[in-house]
Amino acid sequence: MDLRSGRAFWPLTNGLMHTYPPLGSDERADVLVIGAGITGALLAEALSAAGLDVVVTDLRDAAFGSTSASTALLQYEIDTNLVDLIPMTGQADAERAYHLCREAIGMVRDLTAELPDDCGFRERGSLYYASNRRDARMLAQEHAARTRAGLNVEHLDARSLKARFGITAPAALFSPDGGEVDPYRLAQHLLKRAQGRGARVYDRTEVTRLDEPRDGRRDDFTAHTDRHAKIQARWVVVATGYEAEKFLGRRLAQLKNSYALATEPIEQTDGELWPTGCLIWETARPYLYARTTQDGRVVIGGEDDNHHSPARRERALPAKQKRLERKLGKLLPHLHPETAFAWAGTFGETKDGLAYIGPRQTGDRLLFALGYGGNGITYSVQAARLLTDLIQGEETGDLRIFRLDR
């Protein structure tokens, strides 16, 4: 799939950080990871740290698919509000999913502290504002549900919201637990770190066919590639995001396009473009979302529509850009931004807002790490942990929440 249009900010600002060769000869590994975006990079890091022999492939240049189009807001809040998720999954699993995403932000912080640079990671609060008065009533219920779950969240009325953040809306929730990161730089550094432990990374190499073991317990998978070389592996993890149906045989998510822009750096008088530099998003669906970058830019996104074709997405981009510019001006009128980059990317929505992580069916050694939704990176952090544990024979109950057959 052609996963993005326009001029994505992250690969342009970072340049080609690392290069990886295509597969030139047959390989053998404990684990084959298909996909070298942020999810595959997190898996390679976790698996290699556990002492496993890892091969990673990607049909593109590493991290040039959905990762390069991500706006990388790190949130524990799931696209499905907790009050709505509880009836879908049960209270215990819904609350646990929220806590897992919150813990993942700390895990990203710890990872970036060990890398050559901080990958643009910043701990940020998350401001979730009501798009209308009806949603303001919902936020009161959401505040109560999160408080019962032990999450740190504050309810703001219209007056407090305006006074503290300069935003005009009926109400909002403010959570101190959030973050932002440069997803392209993080993926590249993680792949390089895994490579230093012996992992082999091959990009511009497409797995065209996957032969499953004849004896499910003893034989290896054989992955055939367009490079006429094969990879044999005891385990296979598919981390190809919205292209995973090729290996699964069915689609698990509804595909959408989301549009985004990054401004030129904006002069800052008090160290932040808005109070605390928090992540900002709204209750409307599809929702508007915004963050800052280390060099003082605003990244804003939204205007989602159904995915049809790359050509149609490309044609829609100029008008979507103008709508985002108008919405940014209305949301934060004290800023006077100039757009530097605008792009669109494909993403997937699931029926409950949760990722799909785990085996196709119980006992399979073909695993999936599909971090669908608005907080895909936090899901991918947990996928790397959960699947590494599973491969090592230490499966936890958390996998049940994200199972593919739910």
From TrEMBL:
It comes from the Bacteria. InterPro entries: FAD-dep_OxRdtase, FAD/NAD-bd_sf. Residues 30-390 form the FAD dependent oxidoreductase domain. SUPFAM superfamilies: FAD/NAD(P)-binding domain. This is FAD-dependent oxidoreductase. It comes from Deinococcus actinosclerus.
